[in-house]
Amino acid sequence: MPFELFLALRYLRARRGRRVARWTACAGLVGIACGVAALVVATALANGFRDELQEKILRGTAHVTLSREGGAGVEEARAAAARARSVEGVADAQATTYEGALLAGNDDATYALLRGLDGGSPRAREVVRETLTRGALEDLFKNTGGDEAVPVVLGEELAARAGLTNVGDEGYVLTAAAAGGLARGSEEANVLRVRVVGLFKSGLFEYDSAWAYVPLDSLARAGGARPPAFVVSVEARDLYASGEVARRLRAELGPTWTSVDWREANRPLFEALALERRTVALIIMLVTVVAALNITTTLALLVVERRADIAVLSTVGARARSVTLLFVIEGALIGAAGALSGVVLGLAACWAADRFRLVRLPPDVYSLSAVPLHPHASDVLAAALAAFAVSLLATLYPALQAARVRPAEVLRYE
User: Fold this and answer.
1) Cβ atoms within 10 A of the Cβ of 173, count?
2) 187 vs 60, more confident
């Protein structure tokens, strides 16, 4: 064992005459541990919020949305979806539409966003079935000709607002296109009578409080003189290759079709989350820097207390580099112990928060009712290495001061 490491360990274990330095070293270790733990928890919380929000957004929306300038008809959108399925990287494609409407139920009327669901797409059925809490999805695609009410699947929050909380309840829907027809005095504009065949809960408040699934063909008839514009919803095999998939789709369908991938559609949201994550990490890192200053204080006290020892070491042949290294090693040991303790403490806190769902949020403000904590190995390692690096920097000044001690002057007064 190098004598520098041996002496550093010996000084850390010494119990006599170092009470102030020992308490300062403990304060530095605890401060670094708390800073690292807070950084691990903060980054895990930011990761969990982003991942949960992204997962729930993509559960209800497309990886790539294709639309045609001037709008496309339902059959045209279905034909484009069939062509899109043959493009490399596409897992599924379906015709759909999003239409704003007024939903009137037993208790009240509220805004709803009608999404057309194509019964011919097994993947579209599966996505809705995963979030269904009541009713049967098969009832959504039963023949609704004549004067029968149009089947609809509502978000639980939307159903509660409209007073349509039971399967079989009936209400009325006035689409934006139909409302425009009524304003113009069009006799073709009509109000849809709807019947609830199911309720869903996606976990994202915006969807649960506004979305309603309606058969695609029924929406095609809902606009009266001006039917809604239909789009193609595309699911990519690789979520993060959606930009390349969008480029291939435009090449396949021609210049009359435009594409928007999920990152473009949600860019402001995810950029805001990334900025918040960096800001929180920077603030907590400053706490770690302040804690690391205790290491500087500890080593400065050690240099004063061990001046005689340093003088003796220099007299017997220890070089200035060895004296400097001795104190750097001691500070590094304190920093490493603090960083390791912080990682363990932070991961334990993440586990407890996930296990007992401690991070709860008002869903109408943050869209999510609870946030999981996702500690990524790269973030944990970066937090530990950053704290260790700051600890090393904190050792430089007192270590260099120790190397400048003059043996003759010190031993003269000992």
Assistant:
1) 24
2) 60
Among 113, 94, 140, residue whose Cα is nearest residue 202: 113
Written as one string, the DSSP assignment of 297-356 is HHHHHHHHHTHHHHHHHHHTT--HHHHHHHHHHHHHHHHHHHHHHHHHHHHHHHHHHHHH
pLDDT higher than 70, residue 146:
no
Q: pTM score, two decimals?
A: 0.83
**327-377 per-position pLDDT tens digit:** 899 889 989 999 999 999 999 999 999 999 999 999 888 889 899 999 999
- Non-local (6+) Cβ contacts of 148 within 8 A are none
50: how many CB neighbours lie within 10 A of its CB?
18
Minimal CA–CA distance to 252: which of 93, 362, 48, 102? 93
Can you tell me which residue has the tokens 């996505």? 127
| Cα–Cα dist 34/89, whole Å | 45
Q: What is the distance between the alpha carbons of residues 35 and 391, in angstroms, rounded to a whole number?
A: 12
Q: In DSSP terms, which residues pair with 192 in a beta bridge?
A: 173
Q: How far apart are CA 36 and CA 5, in angstroms?
A: 25
pLDDT tens for each residue of 287-331: 788 778 778 887 887 787 777 788 888 888 888 888 899 889 988
Handedness of CA 215, 217, 220, 222 (dihedral sign): negative
Q: Where are the beta strands (DSSP E) in 229-293?
A: 231-236, 257-261
| Polymer length in residues for the chain | 414
Q: Report whether 170 contacts 193 (CB < 8 A).
A: yes
